[in-house]
Amino acid sequence: MALAGMAQAQTAPAAAPAQDVAPPQDAADTPPPSAADIVVTGSRITTSGFNAPTPTTVIGEEQIANNAQPNVFNTIAQLPSLQGSTGAATGTFSTSSGQQGLSSFSLRGLGTIRTLTLFDGQRVVGANVTGVPDISMFPQLLVKRVDVVTGGASASYGSDAVGGVVNFITDTRFEGFKGNILGSITKYGDDETALVQGAYGASTLDGRLHFVVSGEYDHEGGVDAGDFGTDLAGSRDWYRATTLFNTGQTDNGLPQYVYGDYAQPYQYARYGLINNGPLQGIAFDANGAPYQFQYGSNGQPLGNGRVSNCFAGNSFCQGGDLSGAPGSGASLKSSLERINGYTRIGYDFADDNEAYVTVNIAQVKTNNQPSPGYGRANLTVQCDNAFLPQSIRDQCAAAGITSFNFGSANAQLPDPQVYTDRKQYRFVGGLKGQFGLGGTDWNYDAYYEHGITISDIRVRDIVLQNRYVAAADAITVDGAIVCRDPVARANGCAPMNIFGNFAPSLSALAYVAPHENGPFQHTKLTQDVVSANFSGEPVELWAGPLAVAFGGEYRREFYRVNADPYGAGVSDISPNDEDYPADPLLNSELGSNWAAGNYKNGRGKYEVYEGFLEINLPLFDSQGAGRANLNAAGRGTHYSTSGTVWAWKVGGTWDTPIDGVRLRAVTSRDVRAPNLSELFAAPTVTSVPNFNDPFQGQAVQIFQNTIGNPDLQPEIARNTEIGIVLARPSWAPGLSLSFDYYDIKLSGVVSSLSAQQIVQFCFEGNQAFCGGFSLDNANQQLNYVNVQPFNLASWKTSGFDIEASYQWQQPLGLPGSLTLRALGTHIRKFIVEAGIDGVDPVDQAGANNGNTPDWKWLATQTYDSGWFTLTVQERWFSDGTFGNQYVVCQTNCPTSTANHPTINFNKMKGAFYMDVGATYKITDQVSIYGKVDNLFDKDPVASPQTNTGLDINPALYDTLGRIYRAGVRFNF
Questions:
Q1: How far is CA 185 from the centre of its chain?
Q2: How far apart are CA 675 and CA 608, in angstroms?
Q3: Under the phi-then-psi rule, with left for phi > 0, alpha for psi from -120 to 50, and beta for the rest, what region is 439?
Q4: Are 87 and 134 in contact (CB under 8 A)?
Q5: Where is the composition biased (Low complexity) (predicted)?
Q6: Backbone CA torsion sign across 860, 861, 864, 867
Q7: In the chain, which end has fewer C-beta atoms inside a 10 angstrom radius, N or C?
């Protein structure tokens, strides 16, 4: 098996045997294209003999099948040039993002929003307000191949193609019946997967009417959350709560950040901890009995909210009682269920001319647990609380206090769950074919697409914070325990015992965390596209025909989102609303009442008008000089939100006189317009515990308000690629090699600083950052930091791709063939400049807590006897750092700053994974197969942060462990 072909545009006869790689060919030997030809191209021009200067990696249906994945996304995402793609194992720690289970590609580490994904060369409606599609909604059994254009392609394909293009090509003329049944499970007995796929195709009316239909059902059980502390799902034992401990000291000659395991938050415990005042350090066990909390680091409570020998910067000790740490309590992979149905009907109304209609209806459901319980570190508890043990009341009296500060992970509460339900309806009607004009044959492709995505997100068992405060404040009235606040009592408040593992009563739970009527978000996205493209060879020149492609496109994107009133905030909550009644304790106008999942209402739209022209000019064609061409394209794009912007590219190829050697180069100007979310998103509020307040030198809880910016402008990129290809020379006809250098400069990047950076830069004296936040430590409910995107940043990245393959017929006298392949990407630099005074550039190349390792390789070895296939695959990426902004030191450290914080250790190991699979043909129509992914059960390396999250990087590392797969395929 192989995952990619040489980066080369080409034509190949369909009658040729299926190859793992679509091999480069000598254009002089390429027959004229016909309806039966496979055309692989990084451009809109698909005429005979054209070789695109933009590298294009090809993945065939045999490679997709041999990789034995329930989602074709998993196969494509293994390519080294794809960095930072998202899937079911990413985003599981999040409550509010809405991207759980969303399978989207990211080329060159530039993000999913800068990779254009097409289906049969056509746009696809987004599955999220960011505009990115969900690959799991594609009809996967009909995919013939996937073309990955690894370079800027905006001039040819349109906006968003800054990192490149991923184009799924389906078999529109399939006839017969085929199917696939796959089952898989991890070594740890979870993520049980069942996949059933089927497709049927037929033709009638003398072959003029073509009908294709496919359907599939996929159930992936996911990997459940672990428990508090360090207990992961199953018997996984690699989690150690690794953290970058923040000493809070920046100029004492020692590193500010200290790398270590077993981080213990000292502001709360599993069932409650008094974290301030004279009683600081008293915790409560499951039975509600008080005990002296065991701090790590030999820490002792100081009575002022801090602990000696521990880390004040993010309120951690090391070791001790970890039972309240929530990091391991997040899902490792979302469970996923998807249903997909696809139909295509085409009618040849004339030779080489077809009218067609396609319908694709899909649904994807996911579920994940972001974190257990409800972590709260700033609750004020009165000493006369009805549930408080008498011994603590006595200590209150002896200390002369009437209240104390209290923190709890609230493990007695149900764990929150996030459920997403995405439905997509996509309809396309089109015409494609050929016609003659002026003695020239012209190709055309015109279509109209209407896509709708309905997305519903519901969060269950999330706390309404003010109601939690009211329910926790219990007193005794006439012998009955009730909520202290009479207004809260009048609105249904039922008291709750927060001192121990006492499950709340049904009435208390319904009041504090209404199960069915929790946070929700209903989103509707629509996309309308009208597109027409033409190509032909109108003029015969001295070295061959002049090829021309031109066309235009209109696109309209729209979204509307409605959220629950407790999260979104409305001024007229009805007292008679049974689901969300008016409550004086809640902020009805501003919303943001939930501990997480405070979705907001919003809407927005934009329209795009585009026109492009592309030419391929043959320069020379002779035996002595070889063959060369010049390719150029220009595109004008008008956005209703930001005006007109231009994209272009200029490049060429040269088949040199040296046997099999081809040179290619291209430079381009590419664009990406801000998406609906960046432009029009209503404020999204996220709760951030353990936020470092540098003004007070301690961790606090804040609300991060993320808002859109309608004044954003398009991003502009300059992309240059230079490469050399050795394409099956006569002296080694089974050998193919390529080397391509790339350099990308992206300006006006839509980005924002993190909440921590904003506060830190203000603390360091930059007044420009001081107006967008409030830190009121007396009432942490009022703490907020505003985060908004701007066109200020610039990114610069460069590196090179290497591909090599060799096919050996009858190796060692054995029947069949042996194919060896390797693909590698090296990132020389990935410099991110914030574009803000006082913020230094950061080189993210080799930062393995992100998605841009220095080196990434994929290698495969495939033996195919005709009836038996054995495949071995290796995946590897290099060692790196936590972040290249850090200054490593042990003693005599310079002053630690937000730009260059000091740290004692900054190394993050890479990883090596091996996969082994085999297929056996029982008959010509039926095959059985099996595969083991991550054969050696390689554990992920810790990706430490400065908070208590699950410290892994699922975008880069395998977090599930060894997976066993088996199935059967049939084709009649």
A1: 23
A2: 12
A3: left
A4: no
A5: 7-29
A6: negative
A7: C
Q: Concatenate the DSSP letters of all residues of 825-854 into one string.
A: EEEEEEEEE--STT---EE-TTBTTTTB-S
- Residue 88 burial (10 A CB sphere; 0-12, 13-18, 19+): buried
Cα 889 to chain center, whole Å? 34
Q: Are strands 353-368 and 335-350 parallel, antiparallel or unpaired?
A: antiparallel
Amino acid letter, residue 635: R
Q: What is the DSSP letter of 329?
A: G
For residues 127 and 122, give the distance between their C-alpha atoms in angstroms, rounded to a whole number: 15
Calculate what percentage of the chain has a pLDDT beyond 90: 73
CB neighbours of 343 closer than 8 A, spacing ≥ 6? Answer: 211, 212, 213, 358, 359
Structure tokens at 168: 């799924």
pLDDT tens readout for residues 78-92: 999 999 999 888 877
Tell me the Ramachandran region of residue 664: left when phi exceeds 0, alpha when psi lies from -120 to 50, beta otherwise: beta
pLDDT at 701: 74
pLDDT of residue 4: 35
β-pair type (698-706, 784-787): parallel
Residues of the chain predicted below pLDDT 70 = 1-52, 571-576, 682-687, 689-690, 777-782, 948
Question: Does an H or E element contain 511, and which?
Answer: helix 506-512
Residue 153 contacts residue 161 (beta carbons within 8 Å): yes
Per-residue model confidence (pLDDT) at position 146 = 94
Residue type, 631: N
The CA-atom distances, in angstroms, between 171 and each of 200, 232, 623, 645, 710 are 11, 43, 38, 35, 41
What is the reported pLDDT for 44? 65
Quick one: DSSP state of residue 29?
Answer: G
Length of the chain as a residue count: 972
Report if pTM > 0.85: yes
Q: Tokens 């801000």 map to which residue?
A: 674
Report CA-CA distances (Å) from 860 to 78, 310, 698, 944. 12, 49, 51, 32
Q: Which DSSP symbol is given to 307?
A: B
Amino acid 873 reads Q
Structure tokens at 581: 């009644």
- Structure tokens that stand for 762 in this block: 């203000």
Residue from 11, 156, 50, 52 nearest 666 by CA? 52
**In whole angstroms, what is the distance from residue 105 CA to residue 123 CA?**
15
Q: Which H helix or E strand runs over 780? A: none
The rounded distance, in Å, linking the Cα atoms of 652 and 662 is: 11
Counting Cα atoms < 13 Å in the Cβ hemisphere of 119 gives 26
**In sequence order, what E strands does 72-142 have?**
115-119
Distance CA 697, CA 760 (A): 11
Strands, E assignment, 266-384: 273-274, 282-284, 290-292, 316-318, 335-350, 353-368, 376-382
Rg value, the chain, Cα: 30
Residue entry with tokens 């009341």: 393
The per-residue pLDDT for range 379-438, each reduced to its tens digit, is: 999 999 999 999 999 999 999 999 999 999 999 999 999 999 999 999 999 999 999 998
Q: Does residue 869 contact residue 862 with C-beta atoms inside 8 Å?
A: yes
How far is 875 from 548, CA to CA, in rounded Å? 41
CA–CA dist 821, 88 (Å, integer): 28
**Token pair for residue 971?**
């084709």
Count the neighbouring beta carbons within 10 Å of the beta carbon of residue 394. Answer: 11
- Beta-strand runs (E) in 682-772: 684-693, 698-706, 715-727, 735-751
Average pLDDT taken over every residue of the chain:
89
> Which residue's entry shows tokens 């044959």?
441
Tokens 């000696």 belong to residue: 308
Q: Is the dihedral of CA 140, 142, 144, 147 positive or negative?
A: negative
Distance of CA 590 to the CA centre of its chain: 30
Q: How many CB atoms lie within 10 A of CB 397?
A: 11
- Pair of tokens at residue 32: 């004229």
